Amino acid sequence: DKLEEVLKFKITDKTILATFHPASLERATAGPQFKELLKVLDDMKDLRIIFTLPNADTGGRIIIKMIDDYVKKNSGRELASILGNMLMKMLLLKIYGIALLKFHLFL
Fold it and tell me: pLDDT of 46-83, one tens digit each?
């Protein structure tokens, strides 16, 4: 599968996409908020998780570092740094669900 080859990640029926974009105007909230999302995802050991990158602002840079650390320590978790439109559409057709901002998990 081309998508799995590009991502270097096996996509199963238990793969979700995790996207977190901190509010640019909120100060010092991105790290604690994202930490809570990671705690929720930690409890879902059977899920395979592909993280997307947030914006490159201050809060986003904190999140990027947290994602990097998290995927290094947890198998079945991966960072998709640049997908592009076509690969993102292919991914959305194959995944089980999407985890979005501030602890909301949609399956």
Answer: 999 999 888 777 778 888 999 999 999 999 999 887 77
Distance CA 68, CA 59 (A): 15
For residues 17 and 91, is the Cβ–Cβ distance under 8 A?
yes
Q: At a CB cut-off of 8 Å and minimum separation 6, what does 101 contact?
A: 19, 20, 21
Is the CB of residue 4 less than 8 Å from the CB of residue 40? no
Instruction: Return all residues near 9 (Cβ < 8 A) that are at least 6 apart.
Output: 48, 50, 78, 80
pTM of the model: 0.81
Report the run of H or E that residue 99 belongs to, with start and end: strand 97-100
Q: What is the Cα Rg of the chain in Å?
A: 13
